[in-house]
Design brief:
The structure is a single chain. With 267 residues, this protein is of the alpha+beta class. Among the domains are: 66-134, Roll (Membrane-bound Lytic Murein Transglycosylase D, Chain A); 157-261, Glucose Permease (Domain IIA). Helices cover 21% and strands 24% of the residues. It has five helices and twelve strands. Strands 3, 4, 5, 6, 7, 8, 9, 10, 11 and 12 form a ten-stranded antiparallel β-sheet that branches. The chain has a two-stranded antiparallel sheet with strand order 1-2. β10 (232-238) and β11 form a beta hairpin. The radius of gyration is 39 Å and the shape is globular. It comes from Paraburkholderia phytofirmans (strain DSM 17436 / LMG 22146 / PsJN) (Burkholderia phytofirmans). Residues 1-29 form the signal peptide. This is Peptidase M23. Keywords: Signal. It holds the Pfam family LysM.
Length: 267
């Protein structure tokens, strides 16, 4: 009997010890802080994540016969600035009369040539005809006096504006003299493809006003460039007789006007 009791006591002690040990381990598991996960470096993002990111596109030169839309431009305003009918401008650009314009949109402002095909990008293949069409002669009419322009060169007027006979004035000077923009604006044409004007620059100042600088020896700005008033844009050239002069024209709504009405009087 004593032997059984002794065995039972030892067995009970073992069981009790096992229960206490289990309880101790369980409480440790509850009290122990969670193990920190092993650090794993994040993999870099795949290259495909950047494949669709836009990249800056350089501003390309504006083709002759086209115009890049600026903030605030409208179909009617652009048409008048280039002496075109709004309906014709809409037809050339496949627009309805109520369509708005997007900043940066390229508009055809010269009639397309039927016999000439254009490339897939819409660039005219006959730039000479397009350049002539940009500054085609229109009927002259007087303009109200607005001394809002600056003299492009410092010389004296050698040939004045005559309503119905001339399109602008000639200003004398010296060959190579700096020609400056009369006001800020955007260069909508720069080239030598119109024989009557030699090397010519046309600047669009707003929806109605254009200035033209012809008979230059060298052009210092490109089509599409934004220029400030007084910025040097060209060098004066000489005419067929060897006399240095600048052919300066002002057009409002596409019609030639007397530049002297837009220039300050000289002392």
């Amino acid at each position: 009997m004593k032997t059984c009791s002794s065995r039972f006591a030892r067995s009970g002690s073992s069981i009790l010890f096992a229960l206490l040990l289990a309880a101790s381990l369980t409480s440790c598991a509850w009290l122990a802080p969670p193990a920190r996960p092993t650090h794993v470096d994040e993999a870099p993002p795949p290259a495909a994540a950047f494949s669709n990111a836009p990249t800056p596109v350089p501003t390309s030169q504006i083709p002759a016969g086209f115009y890049r839309v600026n903030p605030g431009d409208t179909q009617i305003g652009v048409a008048k600035a280039f002496g075109r009918e709004p309906s014709a401008l809409a037809q050339w650009n496949h627009l309805s009369s109520t369509d708005g314009l997007r900043v940066g949109q390229m508009l055809r402002v010269a009639p397309p040539l039927v016999a000439v095909t254009s490339s897939a990008t819409g660039t005219p293949s006959n730039s000479l005809e397009q350049a002539r069409a940009i500054f085609a002669d229109g009927p002259s009419e007087p303009a109200s006096a607005k001394a809002r322009l600056a003299w492009p060169v410092s010389g004296q007027v050698s040939a004045p504006f005559v309503l119905g006979k001339t399109k602008g004035i000639l200003i004398g000077g010296r060959v190579g003299e700096s020609v400056r923009a009369s006001a800020g604006g955007r260069v909508v044409y720069a080239g030598g493809r119109i024989a009557a004007y030699g090397k010519l620059i046309i600047i669009k100042h707003d929806a109605h006003l254009l200035t033209a600088y012809g008979n230059n020896r060298a052009l210092l700005v490109k089509e599409g460039a934004d220029v400030k008033a007084g910025e040097v844009i060209a060098e004066m050239g000489a005419d067929d007789k060897g006399q240095a002069s600048l052919r300066f024209e002002v057009r409002t709504d596409g019609k030639p006007v007397d530049p002297l009405k837009y220039l300050p009087q000289r002392q």
